[in-house]
Amino acid sequence: MNIFFWVVIGYLVLLMSISVVKSFAVKSQDDFMVAGRSVPTYKLVATLLCTWIGSGGLLAGAGLAAQVGLSELWMAAGAWIGIILVYFLAGRVRRISQYTVPDILELRYNKWARILGTIVIVIAYVTIVGYQFRGGAFVLELVAGLPQWQGVLLTAGFIIIFTAFAGMLSIVSVDIINGAVITVAVVVAVPLVYFNLGGSEYLAAEIDPQMFSVFGGHNFLWAMGVFLPTLLLLLGESNMYQKFFSAKNEKAAKHAVVWWVTGTIVVETAIASLAILAFSHFNSLAPGSAFYLGVENAEQIILHTARFGTEVGIPLAGGLLLICAAVAIITSTGNSFLLAPSTNITRDIYQRFVNPLASEKRIVVFQRVMVLLLGICAWLMLTQFDTILAMAFTAYTMIGAGLTPALLAAFLWKRVTTAGGVASIATGMGVTLLITVLNNVLAEPLLNEAYIVLPAAGASIFALVAVSLATRPDPAEKWEPFYTDKGDIKDAIDEFRQ
Description:
Layout: H1 3-23, H2 29-34, H3 41-52, H4 55-68, H5 73-96, H6 101-108, H7 111-144, H8 148-166, H9 168-197, H10 199-206, H11 220-235, H12 238-246, H13 250-282, H14 301-307, H15 316-354, H16 360-381, H17 388-402, H18 404-412, H19 418-441, H20 453-470, H21 476-479, H22 487-497
């Protein structure tokens, strides 16, 4: 086995050791689900950054950038705008002090909104966890030569066991390390590759200028097709809300968002730039050569660059750091996106409807069992998609169309009604599932994954507005907990500018 394999194993052992140690501190569902509501700003920033930049960015986003250029950042920019918008909600979300997004949905609407919201989250997040397993398999294939099916099983086993040990306590603890590794690795790699390949002269001579155009040869409709899924996902992202619930106070939650958006812009732009530069080199080599990478494997460009970095100017130490960053991205996102739906099932189904009097110990045990079962479901979900990009767009749309409109309306539109919220969730989820199933059974796809968000979100928003306006307004006590004093918005804007 080569040094890359042993570094990956050592890094995983370090992460697992921290999780095992933290498991002894878990005494209640507060500890397991929301880290005892005691997470300070710096830890919150790290875990938000690590959760968001998963295989969707490392593999799908990088693969897209390798093929279309910087226009891939339309996909990333959806999250950037979403994070900025979230800034104005973070304090209020923390003030409500729930455990899950379905908690919020029932508080504003009713139990059916909770149930439907839970279904949406489970489907979407299990899909996202599934492609973290595939990302881990790519890493193990590259560093150890393992067949992908073995790599998927090993990655799944690690993520499931890690998450089951200590839940949110372990995740926020290891994400301090993961966040630092990710940021340093990708930011340092870009200038090394750029200058080694020849700098601006290389860009002018070897890379199509269209790779640096606004739409990369596509049009505005395509840009919105990749922008909206990430924007709507971010605004309805259950992990984010759960981590805001983990913050020690409202101020910590709001300040974390400012640093989160800064870190996300830097890291995602660096990943896209590295993908463009490195792929232009590896793809230009003779097919069949040891370092060649074809378009069909473009999603693996960052991993390929880490493993064969000396070919593009990255020293061995830099390659090892970059492979650790890949491991950090995959495991941290897999852990968070596995914890969230297990929390939803435990809190929003089991504790809410099946066993309301369950003890703290029983709740934690039940959630650990759910982590295992959902991990198995994520593994099975891999068989339904050909690429990570297809899985990402489907999962993003499920949340963005099925959850986000009703969730945002709870905070932003007093006139939304219970019937409108429930109709919106059901419609967004239904349209997304219908198109996805038809795409899988028809000889020709009904609609490209990048465009599913347009009809799905459109139908969800229409149902939200139309049904709300057609039904009697909810009483004030339904919406009052979601609103702050008028001066709070001005104060938030002033804080953000500072």
